[in-house]
Amino acid sequence: MLWKSDYEIGIPIIDTQHKQLFRFNDELTNAVKTGLKSSAIDTLLTQIGQYVARHFAMEEKYMEEVNYPKMAEQLQAHTAFIACFNEIQAEFNAQGLTPALVNRIRKELSEWINDHITGIDQLFGNYYRDHCQK
Questions:
Q1: What is the maximal distance between C-alpha atoms in the chain?
Q2: Closest by CA position to 75, among listed 120, 118, 115, 10
Q3: Can you give the CATH number for the domain in which 107 is found?
Q4: Which domain, by its residues, includes 18?
Q5: What span, in angstroms and rounded, lies between the C-alpha atoms of 92 and 36?
Q6: CA dist 89 to 9, 20, 28, Å?
Q7: Which of 16, 56, 82, 105 is most exposed, with minimal Cβ within 10 Å?
Q8: Which of 26, 27, 22, 29 is nearest to 112 (CA)?
Q9: Cβ-contact 96, 38 below 8 angstroms
Q10: Of the candidates 77, 85, 54, which has an alpha carbon nearest to the alpha carbon of residue 124?
């Protein structure tokens, strides 16, 4: 999956962080092509967990800054994403590396990019830019 300027929300630090999700997706795709290793998936899941903590905190800070009226919707989406990846991590810890797990990670990353970044994050970006230009 390639980054496109259409994905930008107009807040440089957030856009840079969003690009990291594309790198995670690429790493997973490359791992599938070259032969999956449990250690690679474990590292990827750890990196996603660290990313999510930093990214969501940053994004939520910007939302608070402008008193974003749809912040509750964003927080709900963030909480659901964290819960999903906690489940994936627990599944990995319990069952190890399975094709189903890899497919689930790919699905969740793709859906987050396609639905969240191009959906409600775009709305936030528009609101933020409009609010900051006044």
A1: 53
A2: 120
A3: 1.20.120.50
A4: 11-28+37-133
A5: 13
A6: 29, 19, 15
A7: 16
A8: 22
A9: yes
A10: 77
What is the per-residue pLDDT across 65-122, written as a single tens digit (0 to 9) for each?
A: 999 999 999 999 999 999 999 999 999 999 988 889 888 998 998 888 888 998 999 9
- HSE-up (13 A, CA, CB side) for residue 47: 16
Q: Note the pTM of the prediction, 2 decimals.
A: 0.88
Please give the tally of structural domains in the chain.
Answer: 1
Q: How many whole angstroms separate alpha carbon 122 and alpha carbon 27?
A: 25
Q: Is residue 58 part of a domain?
A: yes
Q: CA 2 to CA 131: how far, in whole Å?
A: 30
The whole-angstrom separation of Cα 127 and Cα 69 is: 9
